[in-house]
């Protein structure tokens, strides 16, 4: 394999993976929420789409040409059939565009699944309920029914949703926790663990949290959080 082709592949791989590594680190973080992950994934897709044009390719290719001291191959044999290109640059342009296109498609397939919308709605409900009193007309309950039909008694959950904000405020005050607003699922789990009776008082809400944690973006975050909940 020609050395420039290898050099090109390494640099293109670095371009892709140095960006995707940032998303990977966010996903693995124990402090992130689903909305943060989806926002980061969307930003990464927009970045790849933005640099997937002739101007950015030309800049990328020119820098590699200047950094390389070897000749560029006339053709690249990718199968039993020889693929001809009008120029060396056109061959590498095709590799550049194709690689970025594959990366965008894989991200879209991973982060636009139906489950993610349901998870987002469940996450919003879980966080909203501990900060606000919900009445039974709230649209969140329909999302919960869609998310875990048959697993949650929604009527009981509606009753719990009227009181759970008061329970959390009481626990925060009793334990002198410096919390003004709950913004993380992990905080909800910690407060539940500090007052075990809450798991009995709000069984459906507690069950919803556990169901939410069993369908993670990646198992790492959910495993850490659900372990905390089970202590």
UniProtKB/TrEMBL annotation:
<feature type="signal peptide">
    <location>
        <begin position="1"/>
        <end position="20"/>
    </location>
</feature>
<protein>
    <recommendedName>
        <fullName>HAT C-terminal dimerisation domain-containing protein</fullName>
    </recommendedName>
</protein>
<keyword id="KW-0732">Signal</keyword>
